[in-house]
Amino acid sequence: MIRKHFAGFAASALALAVSAQAFAGTVTTDGADIVVKTKGGLEVATTDKAFGFKIGGRLQADYSSFDGIYTRNGDSADAAYFRRAFLEISGVAFTDWAYTLNYDFSHNSGSSEDGYFDEASIAYNGFKPVSIKVGRFDPEFGLEKATSSKWVTAQERNAFYDVIDWANGHQNGMGIQASSTIGDSVYLSGGLFAKDNNDTDGDSNKQVNLRGVFAPLHEAGNVLHLGFNAARRDVSDSVIDTRFRSRLGMRGVETTGGNDAGTNGNRVVFAGANNTVAGSYDDDTALGLEAAWAMGPLSIQGEYMKRKLKADSSAFQDIEADGYYVQAAYTLTGESRGYKLGKFDAIKPENKQIGAWEVFYRYDSINVEDDNLVTASATRDVGDLEAKVHNLGVNWYVNEAVKISGVYVKANTENVYNASTTGVRTGDDSGDGFVFRAQYAF
């Protein structure tokens, strides 16, 4: 019911704004003059920039087909879903205060209990160059995560991000973060978060995140970017999901934005278990390195990440994982990827007739060590568990609002399968598929 009311309110507010703009006569203000922009959403601001707001959003409609390791029986399945359907409202008040409210109608962010908010935050920018933000938002961890989902190169971010989803996802918690730029080349951030999960005393699990970026070259088509990330969460005396798992680049195996593969979808589990008994583990840490280089239409980037879940009981062993990706992208029509300190941004087509065309390749690697597994299970063998994922795709930036994408994905695993029969390994350890996306961002 709340969701229906929110949707009705948003639609009514937008209709009112449009009708008012169409039928209003003289518009007056009791302060500075105002400027109204309609390119890329509706934006209204005073000329002194003390007050303003913007209404925007993004719609990403996906279709995918896949088989092998991506399904439990190995047969082909498909999925059609909204990856994201955001209504985004942001603004500035009294010069130094800012707010952001992003609601996800596809329900891939948030939950029915906590609201389907991708972000709901307030920031104070009066201590320039330091910004302090509070509310619900994703902790900072990684270059691909810092880059908006509208402008990441592949439809899905690298496969190892799934393994450390707690490190850069809000999990419906709340946080406070301070960030700052130093000159034109350094970006730093640090945050403290309370996740939506409690220990046996009812105390929320706490998490700390740190990120630092040094970019001596920081203009579109001329980028040199180096970064470091760290995250730690306290999970002692807590019932938590300790699974190290990944969709391996294929969101359609499990999603909430529409149809997915259902019970036949296989989100690969490398280690751990859901609802692990309280007192089993102590803390969870993640570390990451990031680097990127761009010259003209060519960009190369990569990240290396590690995760360690430390045991707090003699009945359990530590679980460790590391992974990386490397990606190369080239714009055939000559445009450069946009860049803002700490993240890549949009490609803006120069030719309004044919748009901008980009091709890319990304290689993902995951390695997991779980000594808790001493005998083979239905889907795992004893020993290190690995996955390699190849992503080959093309992006067509039709204009600054519309983007059409397609990617072919092939995954190979070692010591992990989708199924087996007693004593005989019959499951798949590889699979492939494709993903098609139509995106409109305003």
TrEMBL record:
The keyword Signal applies. InterPro entries: Porin_dom_sf, Porin_O/P. Residues 1-24 form the signal peptide. It comes from the Bacteria. This is Phosphate-selective porin OprO and OprP. Gene3D superfamilies: Porin. Keywords: Signal. It holds the Pfam family Porin_O_P. The keyword Signal applies.
